[in-house]
Each structure stands twice: as C-alpha cells, then as structure tokens.
Amino acid sequence: MKSEPAAEELEWPDDPDQRRFYEGVRGAAGWEESSATELDELGVATCRDLRGYSGDPALAVASMEAAYIENLGVEHGAAKGIVAAAIARWCPEVAG
Known about the structure:
Blueprint: H1 16-26, H2 36-52, H3 57-72, H4 76-90
Helix pairs in contact: 1-2, 1-4, 2-4, 3-4
C-alpha cells in the first residue's frame, strides 16, 4: 500500500508581518498546508487588488477583509489581522 507523501515543511519567514500573514492564512480551512510560494502569491495579489482600488483606501481594506471572511472562512478579527499583515509586508504605502 502506497503511503501519502509528507507535506512540504514550511520555512517560517523572519519578517514578523510575513509570519503573521502566513499564520493567519494557514489557520483557514484548506490552507493549512500551503507552501510559502502560495502564501506569498496570495499576499502579493492582495496588495495588487488594494493598489488597484480607486476609492477610499479604508473602504478598500474593509472590502478585502470581507473577501477573506467569505473566501477563506476566517473570523472578522482574523481577516483584519491577515490584511493588516499583508499591507505591512507587501504594500505599506496602502496604509497611508
């Protein structure tokens, strides 16, 4: 009988914001074994979407938090932390 391959061991980043982002996303169902590449791509995509928003920056952040709640199934507090960590790591200019 063939055994399942072991999950790729995630190398935790030294950057505290990146680490918070990883921890937050990996806490969501279905993301527990995400690779660093997948997590980084999600963080970069989050910032790309935030930069592309032409309205009120606070509304853009709230909209992104709602997307994390809906798409990842995380609680509101977790979504706020995930988005804040993504901004701090990949797009601090969005924070104002």
